[in-house]
Amino acid sequence: MNPMGTTQLAMDECGLKTKYAGDQYCIKPPPADKGFQIHIGPTDYNNPEAKYLLQPGEENVVTMTAVSGNDKDILYYYRQYRMRPGSHHVIMAVAGRRIGGVQNLARDEPNNGMIAPEDQDVGLSLKAHTTMDINMHFYNFSDKPMLRELWLNYWYKDAASVKEPSIPIYSFASVSPAVAHSHVVVGAICPVSGNGRVLNLYGHRHLNNVRFSIWHNSGSKHDLVFDDYDSEHPGALDYNSLTMNPAPNPMAKALGGSSGMLELKQGDSLEFECEIVNNTDKNFFGANEAKDDEMCIMIGDAVGSQVSAACTAKAAKRVN
């Protein structure tokens, strides 16, 4: 159960009634003694500042700054991300170091704030009044103006309970084999050092991706642990003793993966693939263009184990 006293994803807490899509994603900040909220968005919905407006056909990536609301150094784990439609990603960084992010309009980490028994001692530190860089990729493929807006809640953890820091997973595969009018599968194999476990995983990709898959390789085992087919509304999975994920279902092209704890040990690897259908007249090389380019990035968090960002590229496979 999350600190807000519910196992449901919090939504529509602000009573907003603007003319822009996505009012229902607004959530209230935590109580002042429990956490703080980062809000990126207009101060006046009737006359929004230009930097928060996206006109029809507009797409861009901007980095904005915000200062964390904690008056003293704190530890945290649970976060609530909410963004308006048109958001492709948000990446949080401090002094050039990534500290979190999502590709979902609504995502809690961990899911619904349910912290599993084995993760009660997991946490991250944040100094008082930290300046954060917030990288936001938004696009507007509609015929009406849209707003760039983010609500992000950080919930404090008792410092005495934290003994394990979470370690980011952020591994790239080249998409350059996806030339104009092609259908290819690209990927990479990333070695694991240390013994630990995965907390969560998802795939960062654009709208030309038709499947993102991750396998856990351990000895002779090659287990599919993440499989997703929806690049417009990509999914993310948690791996712990409380979470029952849907099983992989390629026939239905539905999000699925393994359930329970996803344990890693020295010498294991995580292997991931992106299936890309390039119906454009452009070659892809990894630019931030949702329709006219692609990316293939495995993202997540682990404890105890480091998943290398120095991965071995898999040979590209042409589907047709």
The stretches of 5 or more residues where confidence is low (pLDDT under 50) are: 1-6
Order of helices and strands: EEEEEEEEEEEEEEEEEEEEEEEEE
What about the largest sheet?
8 strands, antiparallel
Q: What is the CA–CA distance across the termini?
A: 47 Å
**CATH topology type of the largest domain:** Jelly Rolls
Mean pLDDT: 95
CATH top level class name of the largest domain: Mainly Beta
In words, what does this structure look like?
The protein is mainly beta and 320 residues long. It has 2 domains: 23-164, Sandwich (Jelly Rolls); 167-318, Jelly Rolls (Sandwich), CATH 2.60.120. Helices cover 0% and strands 46% of the residues. It has no helices and 25 strands. The strands form 5 sheets. Strands 14, 16, 17, 19, 21, 23, 24 and 25 form an 8-stranded antiparallel sheet that branches. Strands 1, 4, 7, 8, 11 and 12 form a 6-stranded mixed sheet that branches. Strands 13, 15, 18, 20 and 22 form a 5-stranded antiparallel sheet that branches. The termini are far apart. Mean pLDDT is 95; it is low at 1-6.
